[in-house]
Write a structure and sequence with these properties.
4 helices, alpha+beta
Length: 288
């Protein structure tokens, strides 16, 4: 090898690898928006794991007000647990005995906040949703489905709903569940969806499945106790978990949607031309 070739080889080894190409749908730093502290609720489980959900106050205001009040009253801090884990369906938590009194001021049966009038979507998927005339995204980073008159939040993986009995019960918010399997979209418009698990989903999705009816744990010893539930706004500033959602209005997010609908890389040789809203949930991340 000549000196020139040897020098070229050494320079090539010393040169940093080229940065990955920026795609049209990639976010810029300014595209990330802080999730408000009063929308972040952290459940600590007895096994040391935590599950963090974001609350959707704009979509279900009375139910979310109940959930905040329950957290402030420390209602989940004693006698509650994850007591149902149904394969390919939901993990559910609250008071398995259904005997624990609710704190004063809780609305036992809020309005049926399953659908709300209007259309707040600032971006939409290009094709109709299988369960709705359209699907898209709110300005504050929530997945939506809707028709000409109304909109609702879809039952996608990680979304959090309010468990209830048969109508006219609407559920207080004391009993919650999250989707851990295939999206049960038939539940849309039948139950209040109040948020989304944004961190620690694996702490619920990997739990042993219940062997009782509907995935309830037959043995009380299988229930996973809840140690505490805290709104981030109640924690000292230095201890607050901070998250960001991606801004959904604008050309970069539109390009992200197009990329989700038409995967194009060395692996995807046939683009689908569309995507289910549950396969294109708006991005959320821990604040850097």
């Amino acid at each position: 090898m000549t000196i020139a070739l040897l020098l070229a080889a050494l320079l090539a080894q010393a040169s940093p690898a080229p940065a990955p190409a920026v795609q049209a749908g990639d976010p810029l730093p300014g595209d990330w928006v802080a999730v408000p502290d009063n929308e972040v609720l952290v459940f600590t489980l007895s096994n040391g794991r935590t599950v963090t959900m974001r609350l959707a106050a704009g979509q279900a205001p009375v139910h979310v007000a109940n959930i905040r009040a329950l957290a402030r009253a420390r209602w989940w801090d004693a006698g509650t647990s994850v007591y149902r884990v149904q394969e390919n369906y939901v993990a559910q938590w609250g008071d398995a005995t259904e005997k624990k009194p609710l704190p004063p001021g809780i609305v036992a049966n809020p309005p049926a906040e399953y659908v709300r009038p209007g259309n707040s979507a600032v971006a939409r998927l290009s094709r109709p949703d299988p369960y709705a005339a359209w699907a898209g995204y709110s300005r504050d980073g929530w997945p939506l489905a809707g028709d000409a008159q109304s909109e609702w939040m879809p039952h996608c993986y990680g979304m959090v709903g309010v468990a209830r009995d048969l109508a006219p019960s609407t559920g207080s918010g004391a009993e919650l569940y999250t989707i851990i399997g295939h999206s049960p979209r038939a539940l849309d418009r039948n139950i209040a969806v109040v948020g989304r698990v944004i961190d620690g989903m694996e702490a619920l999705s990997t739990l042993p499945r219940g062997t009782g009816d509907l995935g309830f744990y037959k043995d009380e010893a299988q229930r996973l106790p809840i140690v505490s539930a805290r709104l981030a706004s109640e924690l000292p500033a230095a201890e607050r978990p901070r998250y960001q959602y991606r801004e959904t209005a604008g050309p970069r997010f539109a390009a992200w949607i197009k990329a989700r609908e038409n995967r194009r890389n060395d692996f995807f040789t046939v683009p689908a031309g569309g995507v289910d809203i549950c396969a294109a949930l708006p991005p959320v991340r821990k604040a850097p």
